[in-house]
Input
Amino acid sequence: MARPIASDHGAKQGDILDRAAELFAQDGYASASMQGLAVACGLSKATLYHYYATKDALLFDLLDRYTQRLLALVAESEAAAQRKQLNDPATLHELIRQLLATYERAGPRHAVLLTDAKQLAPEQHALITQRQRDLVAAVTRLLTRAYPERATPEHATALTMMLFGMVNWTFTWLKPQGRMSYHAFAELVIATLESGLQGS
Amino acid sequence: MARPIASDHGAKQGDILDRAAELFAQDGYASASMQGLAVACGLSKATLYHYYATKDALLFDLLDRYTQRLLALVAESEAAAQRKQLNDPATLHELIRQLLATYERAGPRHAVLLTDAKQLAPEQHALITQRQRDLVAAVTRLLTRAYPERATPEHATALTMMLFGMVNWTFTWLKPQGRMSYHAFAELVIATLESGLQGS
DNA sequence: CCTACCGATCGGTAGG
DNA sequence: CCTACCGATCGGTAGG
Output
C-alpha cells in the first residue's frame, strides 16, 4: 500500500507560495534565487525541491491559483448581487469592492502576476493570459450592463481597461495600513464611475 | 592629446537604448543578456561595453532620460495651456493628451520603468523614484486646480493615482496601430473625469 | 572592435 | 520498499 502524502503537504505548499510571492515581488522572479527562497521558508533547498520540481512550476502554481481566485470573485460578486437583488450598476460596484478587498491581501501576488508572468514557458504563459482575458471579458459584460449608454461595443473594452487601470494600479502605491484604506478607495472609484470629478 | 569622442557616440547610445528598451520590456532586465543586446544592436559584446560600462549603467541611463522626459511634459503642457489661455480643467486635459501621445511612442520604456526600476542599485533607484514622485506631485497640483471640489487634500493623491492608473495601464493593452487610438483613449479618459460613465 | 576567458553564482540533482 | 529531508556538488551560463 502506498504511503499517503503528509497531511500538511498542502499547507506547506501554501506557506512556500506566500514567501515566494513576497520574494518575487521584491526582487523579480529572475533575480530571486531558490536558495534565497529556501532560507526565507526555513527549509533547505533540497526540501524546497521536494514541494516544487522546478522554479518555473512554482511560479506557475502561484499565478494559476491567483488568477483562478480572481475569476471566482466575479461569480461570487454576481451571486451576492443576486441575493441582495442589486441592479446592474450596484453589481459592478460590488465586484470593484471585492477586487480591492482581495488586492489588499494579495499585493505581492498581484505584482508578480503583472511583472513576471512573461517568464513562464509559452504554454503556461498562454494559460495565464487566457485567464486574464476571461476576467476582462466578464468585467466588460458587467460594465456594459451597468452603463449601456457609454459602454458601446466600440468603447466597452477601453472603458473596462480604464477601470482595471484605476483598480490594478493600486499595487504601485496603495498599502494596507496606509492613510487611505482599500475600502475608501473602492468608494472613490465607484463615485468617479458614477459622476466623474466635477463638483456636485 | 586625448582622442575626441566620435561624433556619432550619442546617436549610437540612443540606438542602444531603443534596442535595450525593447529587449528589457520583452524578457525582463534580469533575464535579458548583454550578449543578446549586442546581437540585437549588431555589435560585439565588447563594443557594447564601450558605450556603457555596466548593465546597470545602461538601465539607469534609460530610466533617467525617460523620467526626465515625462517631467518635462508637465512644464510643456502648462506652457502650451497658458499660450492658449486654457482654464484649469483644460490644462489638465492637455497634459493627459501629451502623456498618452508620449506613451504611444515609448511603450517599451514605460514597461521597463514600471517593472525593472527596482533592479537598480538603491541610490539610483531612489533617484528614479523621486522623479516619479515629482511627476505625481505636479499632476496632483493640476488636478486640484481643475477639480477643487472633489480633489480635497484628503482625496487629491488617491484621485491622482486613479488617473495615473487609467493612463499608465495602457502599457498592458493599448498598442500603436490598434483599433483604439491613443488619441481616442485620451478623450475617453477626459470624458470620464468630466462626467463619469452614466448616460447623459 | 574581436576572441578568449575569468570568478561567481545559478537551477537542479546526486548519494545516504 | 516508501517518505521526507540533509550536506555537498553537479553542468552550464551569466556579467564583465
